[in-house]
Amino acid sequence: MDCVTLSSDKPVEHLEVTPAAWLYLNHQHGQQDVVAHDHNFLEIAFILNGNARHLVVDGERRSSVGDIHIIPPGAWHGYCDCRNFEVFNCLLSPALLEKELAWMKDDLSFSQLLGLGSPRGFAPVQKLRVSPRRITTLRPLLTDLERAYASARSRTAILGRLLLIFDFIQTIAQAKATPGSRPSAMHPSIRKALDLLHSGIAEDWTLEKLASQLRLNPSYLVRLFRTETGSSPMRFLSRLRAERAATLLLSGTTRIGDIGIAVGWPEPKHFAASFHRHFGLSASSYRRKMALTR
To answer: What are the structural domains of the chain?
Structure first.
């Protein structure tokens, strides 16, 4: 991985594409366990054989042939208990996303699916499921891209093959979507609200304080926020804090009380109850469980 560097800063390992990198492909036929890590690039992992446990912020999910994992920049994941696990990793650098694929940020179907335009670490890991019949279509596309990449074909040749794979992904995502549903642009006030909550997660937020910063009536903000996100602002903030706390818990050195303060839950009992409500187990139990998989 000469174009991808690994650092071990807590709480998770961090992979970073070097500034000169454009695209990195990594086809593992016998993928071993991978510790929890995040990265500065968009990763799309195609599972072509075997199975493993896929670790993400809200726990673990079984991953097997036919899965496509989409890991946005800043999101973390890992694998353990890998068995005959074949993974085709496609790593898209910030430079590629900001130049040749910049149009995807304005395409709502891709923007929402790939987490483009969201604050770093805010977009969740997503999974698509490919049927056995469609895998026979996917494999030749990946093989063609891999050959072009390995033989150092031109960017045009590689990009053309990459776009065919994105067309395949979009088709799968559209088949999964609710009939008649269409992605729509987020209301600018809600986009600003999400940015405020994400960047100021430790602040002592109330509905009234958030509404005041947005210059909206609190009741109207709740209705608008629920329409755009499916959740109320304060419930959304609680989930955001729980997931940030879960990420910090991957570090075995940070005190749980300090983590509560860092995410805006300085009162230990409130932190304990809120974390348990979201994950179904205590912060210390979550830390022990995830430590066993690293």
So the answer is: 4-176 (2.60.120.10), 188-291 (1.10.10.60)
